Amino acid sequence: MLLFLLGGCIETDETVWLAFNSGDSAVEVTVGSMELLPPAETILTSTTGEVQVGYATVDPGGGPIGTVHIVRIEVAAEFAAEVDRASVRTDSGPRGEDEFDLLRDSAGAGIWVGEIESVGEEGEVREDSLTFLLWQAETSSE
């Protein structure tokens, strides 16, 4: 019985991820185009949409099936220390949705980078939506 009581008193930390940006910052990427397209970019704003907190790019902004796209987020210097995680949510229509975490650059706290490969069937052409998400960690003890 004593072990059970001690076990019940152990504290655990659980991270809750709070949105740092508005979540409506997205770009359209053409999958299945015959040529590589110029980078797609967007501005990232605060949760209210009132303050610019950074920008995001996808390079190239479209290309043939199998194209590897470099996803890059740059958080403004005055907000970089407040962002603990960055991710990109993909919406490929009937192919579904997914979310990928980006890696923080070791030399620049506000730079986050990742790669996404466009997949599809031969001859398929579609517009995928990529939404950029910034997160702030809130740790709570239970």
Radius of gyration: 19 Å
Order of helices and strands: HEEEEEEEEEEE
Q: Could you state the oligomeric state of the chains shown?
A: single chain
Our count of helices gives 1
The tally of strands reads 11
Give the % helix.
under 10%
Distance between the termini: 21 Å
Describe the protein.
The protein has 142 residues and is mainly β. The protein has a single domain, classed as Immunoglobulin-like (Sandwich). The strands form 2 sheets. Strands 1, 2, 5, 7, 8 and 11 form a 6-stranded mixed β-sheet that branches. The longest helix is centred in the N-terminal third of the chain and has 7 residues. The protein is elongated and about 50 Å long. 21% of the residues are buried.
